[in-house]
Amino acid sequence: MTKYIQYILLTIFIGLSAGVVQAQEEEQQNIGTERVVIVKAYTPTISDAFKVKASPVFDDSITKNTKALRYSIFSVPVASTYTPVKGKAVSLEKAKRIPLFDNYATLGFGNFTSVLAEFYSNFQIDRTDNVGVYLHHNSSQGGIQDIQLDDKFYNTSLDLNYTSRTRDLAYGIEVGAEHQLYNWYGLPPLPVRTQEEIEAIDPAQSYFGAYVGGKLKLEDSFFKEASLRYRYFGDATSTVEHHIKAKPTFEIEVADELIKTDVIVDFLNGSYDTVIPNTTVDTYSILNLGVSPNLMVLRDNLTLKLGAAVYYSSDIENGENNFYIYPKISGSYRLSGDQAIAYGGIEGDLYQNSYRDAVQQNPYVSPNLSLTSTHNQYDAYLGIKGKLVNRVLYNLRGSYVAEDNKALFVNNAMSITPTEGYQYGNSFSYRYDDITTFKGFAEIKVELNRKFTLGINGTYYSYSTDREEEAWNLPEFEAGLNADYQITDKWYAGAQLFFVGERKDILNTTLVVTPQTVTVDSYIDANINVGYRFNDRLSAFIKGNNLLGDDYNKWNNYPVQGLQVMGGATYKFDF
After folding, report:
1. Per mean pLDDT, which range of 51-55, 125-129, 223-227 is the poorest?
2. Model confidence over 451-469: pLDDT tens digits?
3. How far, in Å, CA of 309 to CA of 232, rounded?
4. How confident is the model at residue 513 (pLDDT cuts 50, 70, 90)?
5. What's the CA gap between 302 and 131, in Å, rounded?
6. Would you state the pLDDT for residue 27?
7. Rounded to whole angstroms, how far apart are CA atoms 422 and 412?
8. Can you count the helices (H) and strands (E) in the chain?
9. Among 475, 436, 482, residue whose Cα is nearest residue 459
10. Is there a contact between 571 and 105 (Cβ–Cβ < 8 Å)?
11. What's the angle, vertex CA 350, arms to CA 374 and CA 505, rounded to 5?
């Protein structure tokens, strides 16, 4: 600071000197010359500052003097006979590294002349790019007792994908194809048919499908990601369906919060070779356009998602247009760490029914389904989940769902003069109704150690319909059990058990007879698998499905195969 003051004073002095010189020159021009004598140079000084004492002394008669505290320690020596033992460091056993392979092949055979085949391969092109191949085949030549038509089936699919990942960009391209064969073997018991009439029925149905799609993901951009897929699906009766879905996603940060927006484009188009019964419809075209913004709020123990979805839906063939608005609100709060987490929300969405989706649920549908969109008004749910103890997880949830135009499978009536294999009362179609559903769900998972895991869950349903007498083919109760046990380093086992409660369906004989309600019995399906690893590459397995041997009906008049046993092997390798 002193140095800066000196600089300032020197500047002032030079300025004054320049002014004096100039004044002298002007004086000489006007009044002549005069001698100036400097008696003493300017020497600035800094006065001492007054400093307040840090601990002032108070003269107060009220102040009490603190009494001095005196204490002493009485020390007594204690004799100790303890002699510590010199510790020895314990070495940690390193876990054996599990080898990972890029490829595997599985092949298995079982009764009912069943075959299971799988092949997966991943080719690493370079550090960022790779190609994957997946082939799956499952088939059976049938043999269910007491049925009159062929019940063989097979399901084959092939998927190829290419992915590339860099620091700022990731994208993938995928293509695939599928071929499925099923038989409408579920003939109703009435009317009784002769052997010639049965042999004249061709129950076979083949499904063909293919798709191509891609995904894109960007870093450090408001355009975050996008996906696009086109799928073709058709069958042996000349039913054709085209389905295009696109979903770009944008992210914008506002006031330190992230707003994510999904844009949805969903277009479905198809045609039938035969029209829907009692209608003249043989084509359908439905376009759904939607936008769904949401805000994610993260706090210490609170996670909150606030959003909504707006859709414009156009049934092009029927000239019907509608706007839908759905809530998208969900959140969770940690009541007690991981022991108790409360969660809830109210969410809705628009679901587009398609022919392919119906076939994946029920392959015995007729090829001329009436298709529309299901308006899921809201799903209001509340639950709690967490850990009872360190390795016991639980989840309890109750929900109330309101759906308009919910698709229900019903048994088709037999045609008066059937000509196709699905017109004998042995196929299913869609009926739509406005349904509200109460769901109660409970789940518990136990992980006693790394070798044994057990999961049990159950769901109770209560339906309320608007136009239909029953919620056709929807169960009132479902339960499941799943267990995995690593017996030794070589042996492993697993078990699965499924229970599905009673369902209601329509019993049709012909179009002119009043349909009746029939009850489809509940069933239990118990499965088990045991495997042995010969080494890191080769393992063998044996599976038992439907161990109770019950030929239960999954759909009305469609009994399943009884006790099924399959054995096979899996081999892992690298090229």
Report:
1. 51-55
2. 899 999 999 999 999 999 9
3. 28
4. low
5. 40
6. 45
7. 9
8. 3, 26
9. 475
10. yes
11. 20
User: 424 by DSSP, 3-state: which?
Assistant: coil
> Which SS3 state, helix, strand or coil, does residue 256 take?
coil
pLDDT at 297: 87
Q: Are 459 and 439 in contact (CB under 8 A)?
A: yes
- pLDDT tens across 143-160, in order? 998 899 999 999 999 999
How far apart CA 450 and CA 4 sit, in angstroms, is 74
pTM: 0.81
Residues with Cβ within 8 Å of residue 457, at least 6 apart in sequence: 441, 442, 443, 444, 479, 480
Q: What is the pLDDT of residues 14-49, one digit of tens each?
A: 444 444 344 444 444 444 455 555 555 556 665 555
Write the DSSP assignment of 79-135 as a string of letters.
-----PPPP-PPPPPPPPPPP--SEEEEEEEETTTEEEEEEEEEEE-SSSEEEEEEE
Question: Phi/psi zone of residue 3: left (φ > 0), alpha (ψ -120 to 50 degrees), beta?
Answer: alpha
Q: Exposed, middle or buried, 52 (CB in 10 Å: 0-12/13-18/19+)? A: exposed
Contact present, 443 and 481 (Cβ < 8 Å): no
Question: Are residues 164 and 154 in contact, defined by beta-carbon separation less than 8 angstroms?
Answer: no
Strands 392-411 and 373-389: antiparallel
Q: For the chain, give the percent of residues with pLDDT over 90.
A: 67
**103-573 has which CATH code?**
2.40.170.20
Using alpha carbons, select from 260, 329, 263 the residue that is nearest to residue 290.
263
